[in-house]
Write a structure and sequence with these properties.
single chain; alpha/beta; Rossmann fold; 46% helix; binds nicotinamide-adenine-dinucleotide
Length: 300
Amino acid sequence: MALPITSKTPFDIGLGLEGTHVLVTGGCGLIGRVVVHAFLAAGCLVTIVDILDPSAAAVIFELDDRIGCYLQGSIANHAEVECAFGKAEKAFGPVHCCIALAGLDLSVLKPSESICDVDPEEWRRVFDVNINGTFLTCQRWLRGIRAANNDPYAAVLRNVSLVIMGSEAGAFGVRTMAAYAAGKSAVQYGLLLSLAKDVPRIYSNARVNAVAPGAVDTDRFKDESKQYGAQWRYEECEATVGLAKPVPPEHVARTILFLASERFSGSVHGQCIAVDSGKMGSVVWGKDELAERRRGGPGM
Ligand SMILES: NC(=O)c1ccc[n+]([C@@H]2O[C@H](COP(=O)([O-])OP(=O)(O)OC[C@H]3O[C@@H](n4cnc5c(N)ncnc54)[C@H](O)[C@@H]3O)[C@@H](O)[C@H]2O)c1
């Protein structure tokens, strides 16, 4: 028996993001630039905040020939975050949607053989950008939403959403990069869940979520995995995920667009979405190390 048709209105499958002001930190990076292109394609006004010099952003906006603005600054510096948001608001009005994506990625950090060898200064540096910088970004976005909500002359806010960039590392840990893993856990759990309780008190429809990608199939990842002694990185990524392949950057960008769209994800709040090809765990012992262990080598 056919189900009765309950509505004559056609189902609108557009994202409904047109005209939304989106600020993307780290928008010049390998994932960030794909995210920026995706928002531009969805008809958003996009502000990039990145520590890189403006030439990097000029290339991104030239390609798209759409409306965008670039502001140079470090998310770890309170005054620079304040200045970047202030300029972005002057250019395009309140930042409706903030993508807190900037960070020191695993691939730009120096691995340590063991947690015994971690340099406390390096630990602090990673936390300063990946936790403190993410916090400053989220805080300034929320303050902007509060100000816009209290402004009787401000236009109605739409797609009020914050997306924090986490990582599979925050769920599984990384033996040789504990600061990175600990920093991602902090933002994709503690910070996210605290914000999720607070954000709707500031603006009733405001939402906050995180995405936690697995290894993303960027050119850098491909190049790194080709280097002598590093092939295991690609192999690990294939062997430990259900789909047996790394994540295309477009899949991360599309998930972020979904989370930004009130029409699509208006009831998704406080979630950390794994975009990781179905990660099942991480390899703890490499083949050579296992052989060494069986032989009863040093430290065994
Ligand atoms: N590449 C991956 O496989 C992967 C997987 C999971 C999560 N992530 C996360 O995704 C995000 C982007 O990763 P990516 O691979 O594109 O790395 P990337 O290094 O290409 O991009 C990072 C961007 O952040 C910017 N940035 C760094 N420090 C900054 C600061 N203090 N202030 C402002 N901007 C700053 C960089 O200039 C760069 O443009 C990071 O948070 C990373 O941890 C990446």
